[in-house]
Amino acid sequence: MRLKDKVALITGGARGIGKQIALTFARAGADIVVWDVSLEASQELAREIEATGRSFLGQEVDITDYEKVSEGLNKILDKFKKVDILVNNAGITRDQLLMRMGESEWDAVLKVNLKGTFNCTKAVSRVMVKQHSGSIVNIASIIGIIGNPGQANYSASKAGIIALTKTSAKELARRNINVNAVAPGFIQTEMTAKLPEELKEKMKAAIPLGRFGSTEDVAALCEFLASAEAAYITGQTIIVDGGMVMV
Question: pTM, whole model, 2 decimals?
Fold first, then answer.
């Protein structure tokens, strides 16, 4: 019960990696708040969270709008009175080669992935500063480190999250708030399940461990970083990719 009686907010937490983080945190003793664009998916998650004996609050919040983020945060405080953990997981892709990428495709990804992370960090850190404690985990990507053809917008947004993590960690450390990033590689999700088998085999061949990661692999690291055991770790980007990228 590493996170016993903590309150954790996970953005984009109704599906995929975010959902697994929410379930892992609940099993570790945390009450869970999920911000997601899909209330229906959040309702399904609510039943699983409540089965662990922890409280759940699902909200539809546009993280690209700071006023909406503030409104959502106030509702969390009304219910739980605090926020101990923030996981900035929400993100989208709009893949296209750089020369063909439209301005709208660039703007949409940067707005959700990077501005959304900024908005949530800014709002929640105000609460954590008053508490003199807190842990923020930003979900980046190895694509933000190595780049990837067709993902100029996504790689730029994730690289921006890594830089934001470092600056946030330096600014908030004096208030006993840790900020770290997790950079997953190829993780088994609904998105990767749709890839052609030939492409998946090619991708696996580039991974020393010879397999895709699981959402549990990512969630376990997030749980550790959000716990007291990681109290002396801040400003770091930890890669979870089976050895594909070694820096």
Answer: 0.95
